């Protein structure tokens, strides 16, 4: 309601004067003196029309805090005066000595707003001189909760200016003393879950609880940690990147990817794909831009302690072989302890079986300039089957991605063979030759093809047979020598 009586000693009065236009009812914005109408409460304004005090609610309404609306329109050149009184509340007046509590918002408007909290207690203790901003709220039952705090305090024990900034949150059982979650110390080290960081970023502590760190992205995006020696993107010479579209983890050094763990769990060095052998769990592809070490070796193993195994081989967690080294040699070892064997018998037909072997001279297609001695695996398999792996003329299915002449890529997981073949205008087969073409096209579209499953041979497994044959030959030679000696003596 309008103020009646002497002007109070606290608060500020503002006067706004408007010259009305014909039939004007609403008065707002800049007045005749370019002052913009505003008031804190409609109960604390007086409104005059041509010097006559108007009755609130009857002669005018004021509900927006920025306008006055007359019930009856003013006439041309009428004078409307609004006198606004700022609200003065003793309950919201904060004493410099005693402090206080505000029930409304606190705003600071300035060219360079600044809020300073000063602890005026003289102390040099670690954690002393503290100032705290506390965040509280009411629960549904009306109880007051301390939710979080931000604290600035001294970071040391000397008469110096070192400070730290501490962030605390309530885990639900901290009462009025939230738990520290993060700290920035005087060395600008950041600790998350650690109140004594020793590096730029320290996460977690030495307790049994696990450290927490997550990098999230969309299913087609990537999460990356960059390592660089400058501020520009070009300075990022290393990175660890997880690509969600291929579900692969990539490692780069000197500006290029050097290692990848693919979605199958294979570890790839010097290549981004192990498609040429989907079963391999470690793939090494050395090249001039990759991992060449020690004069072009693909892999180098160095045992720096006593002589012994440098590489072990296991099947179902049981040792079946090893490669061991001494100071001057390398040994290739396979399981041979007598305690692993049964039904042991001497070889009695060594010469007969050796005569069945057919050693050959040949070159490999991939190495046409080198002629070597050896065996054809399927021929040796008939004599020493344990020395050969695989079967003669065996084939296996191989998955791959094919790109047609139009540049479309087809994979077995997403495309239907018939549908794709029709889209490529391949006509229905009428002859045997066309049928073969159709079948090959279908296999290509579906991303599978039949390829030779090559045999292999471990020539070391032929040594026992050769040894037995040699012993048999030696025995025969010794018998003949004895007979010859007897004849010569007679």
Tell me about this structure.
- The protein is mainly beta and 490 residues long.
- It has five domains: 13-88, no CATH class; 125-213, no CATH class; 222-284; 360-370 and 372-392 and 457-489, no CATH class; 395-452, no CATH class.
- It is built from five helices and 30 strands.
- It has helices at residues 350-354, 377-381, 417-423, 432-445, 463-489, and strands spanning 13-19, 26-28, 45-49, 52-53, 60-61, 67-70, 79-85, 131-138, 144-154, 163-169, 179-184, 190-192, 201-203, 222-228, 236-243, 248-253, 256-261, 267-269, 282-284, 308-315, 318-325, 330-334, 360-362, 372-374, 388-389, 395-399, 402-403, 409-410, 448-452, 456-457.
- The strands form nine sheets. Strands 8-9-10-11-12-13 form a six-stranded mixed sheet, with no helix packed on it. A six-stranded mixed sheet has the order 14-15-16-17-18-19, with no helix packed on it. A four-stranded antiparallel sheet has the order 1-7-3-4, with no helix packed on it.
- Strand 15 and strand 16 form a beta hairpin.
- Helix 3 crosses helix 4 (432-445).
How would you concisely characterize the structure shown here?
The protein has five domains: 76 residues, no CATH class; 89 residues, no CATH class; 63 residues; 65 residues, no CATH class; 58 residues, no CATH class. Helix content is 12%, strand content 30%. It is built from five helices and 30 strands.
Query: How much is the average pLDDT?
Result: 84
Q: Report on the biggest sheet.
A: 6 strands, mixed
Class derived from helix and strand content: mainly beta
Tally the beta strands: 30
Percent helix = 10-25%
Q: Give start-end ranges of low-pLDDT stretches.
A: 1-9, 289-293, 403-428
Strand line-up of the largest beta sheet = 8-9-10-11-12-13
Number of domains: 5
Form type: elongated
The tally of helices reads: 5
Terminal CA distance: 156 Å
């Amino acid at each position: 309601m309008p103020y009646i009586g002497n002007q109070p000693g606290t608060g500020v009065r503002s006067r706004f004067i408007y010259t009305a236009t014909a039939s004007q009812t609403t008065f707002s914005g800049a007045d005749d003196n370019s002052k913009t109408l505003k008031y804190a409460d409609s109960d604390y304004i007086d409104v005059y029309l041509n010097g006559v005090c108007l009755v609130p609610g009857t002669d005018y309404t004021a509900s927006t805090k920025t306008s006055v609306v007359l019930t009856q329109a003013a006439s041309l050149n009428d004078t409307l005066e609004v006198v606004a009184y700022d609200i003065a509340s003793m309950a919201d007046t904060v004493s410099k000595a005693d402090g206080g509590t505000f029930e409304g918002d606190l705003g600071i408007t300035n060219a360079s707003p600044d809020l300073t909290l000063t602890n005026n207690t003289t102390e040099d203790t670690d954690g002393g001189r503290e100032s705290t901003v506390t965040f509280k709220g009411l629960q549904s039952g009306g109880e007051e909760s301390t939710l979080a705090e931000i604290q600035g305090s001294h970071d040391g024990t000397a008469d110096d200016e070192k400070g730290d900034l501490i962030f605390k949150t309530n885990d639900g059982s901290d009462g009025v003393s939230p738990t520290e979650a993060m700290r920035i110390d005087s060395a600008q080290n950041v600790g998350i879950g650690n109140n004594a960081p020793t590096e730029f970023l320290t996460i977690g502590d030495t307790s049994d609880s696990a450290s927490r760190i997550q990098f999230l992205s969309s299913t087609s995006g990537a999460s990356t940690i960059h390592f660089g020696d400058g501020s520009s993107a070009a300075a990022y010479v290393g990175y660890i990147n997880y690509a969600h579209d291929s579900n692969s983890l990539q490692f780069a050094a000197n500006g290029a990817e050097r290692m990848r763990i693919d979605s199958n769990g294979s570890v790839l060095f010097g290549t981004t794909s192990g498609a040429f052998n989907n079963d391999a769990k470690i793939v090494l592809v050395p090249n001039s831009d990759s991992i060449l070490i020690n004069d072009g070796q693909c892999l180098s193993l160095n045992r720096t302690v006593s002589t012994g195994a440098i590489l072990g081989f296991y099947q179902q967690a049981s040792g079946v072989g090893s490669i061991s080294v001494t100071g001057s040699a390398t040994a290739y070892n396979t399981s041979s302890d007598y305690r692993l064997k049964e039904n042991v018998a001497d070889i009695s037909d060594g010469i007969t079986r050796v005569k069945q072997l057919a050693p050959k001279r040949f070159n490999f297609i991939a190495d046409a300039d080198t002629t070597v001695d050896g065996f054809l695996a399927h021929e040796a398999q008939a004599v020493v089957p344990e020395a050969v792996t695989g079967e003669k003329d065996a084939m296996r299915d191989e998955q791959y991605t094919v790109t047609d002449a139009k540049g479309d890529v087809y994979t077995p997981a997403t495309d239907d063979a018939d549908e794709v073949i029709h889209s490529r205008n391949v006509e229905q087969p009428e002859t045997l030759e066309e049928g073969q073409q159709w079948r090959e096209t279908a296999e290509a579209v579906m991303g599978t093809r039949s390829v030779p499953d090559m045999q292999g041979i471990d020539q070391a497994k032929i040594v026992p047979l050769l040894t037995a044959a040699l012993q048999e030959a030696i025995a025969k030679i010794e018998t003949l020598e004895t007979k010859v000696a007897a004849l010569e003596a007679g």
